[in-house]
Amino acid sequence: MSSERRRGFTIVELLIVIVVIGVLASVTVVAYGSSTKGARLPAIVRHQSDNKSYRDVLYR
Predict the structure, then answer these.
(1) Which of 14, 24, 39, 44 is spaced 20 to 30 Å from 53 by Cα?
(2) What is 1-60 written as a DSSP string?
(3) Over the stretch 15-54, which tens digit does the pLDDT of each residue have?
């Protein structure tokens, strides 16, 4: 065997990187989910008012 050590990452370092990436991904998924839910609410309200006006026209 040669006396040179192989340079590289240890398992612990790789696991730490994977955990950090997982935490960052979960934070972005939660932030994205709450922003899309907030964006859908005005559209729902708008559609409800449209449906009410259509109902009023149909059932006069």
Answers:
(1) 39
(2) --SPPPP---HHHHHHHHHHHHHHHHHHHHHHHHHHHHHHHHHHHHHHHHHHHHHHHHT-
(3) 999 999 999 999 888 877 766 666 666 666 777 777 667 6
